[in-house]
Amino acid sequence: MEPHAELGRRGAVCPFARAVHNDDSLIFCVWNANNLRFNDFLCVLKKIPESYFRLLARMHGNSKLFSMCIFVRGLEEEQYGRYIDGAHSLIKPAFMEAGLMLGEFHPLSKTKGVHSETFLPMRSSQPAFVVRAMSPHDALFIDRADSPAEVRLHELMNYQRWVGDGLPEAEGMRIHHRIMELRSAIAMQS
């Protein structure tokens, strides 16, 4: 909820955190993944969107802010890369298809910030996933140069589907043109 000197921009590290907290739109959960095989871990993770929407239907706050923070217990440090970062990469497309964003956090995260090469925003004292509805500012987190073109195309198409109607016209056109560029680039690779 606070600014950070290495963030690379002004404002809080997460622009949603304070509003979500103040609106009582944040649910905390604990998931004991001790001795859970990776494939079983993925199966449970795939069911989280269903739980998110079930909880959302019962909440009284601002539904656009509703978020779930799921602390993952029982993992050893050497498992963070696979169970948090790896699982995030594998499961994020399904979350985006449902109009959700999935954030991955753990003490050893090497994920760099959008605005700074030195700031590591996904570092946290405990391994966790955070789930929230996709929003217009998520354009910052998709179509990144370190992702394959197919992944970027999938993410942009879901972004357009879920938030496209709420974007300013110029941004909507930029997203549309970027989708066309990626489709062409993928077709040329084939």
UniProtKB/TrEMBL annotation:
This is DUF6875 domain-containing protein. Pfam families: DUF6875. Keywords: Plasmid. Residues 2-155 form the DUF6875 domain. It comes from the Bacteria.
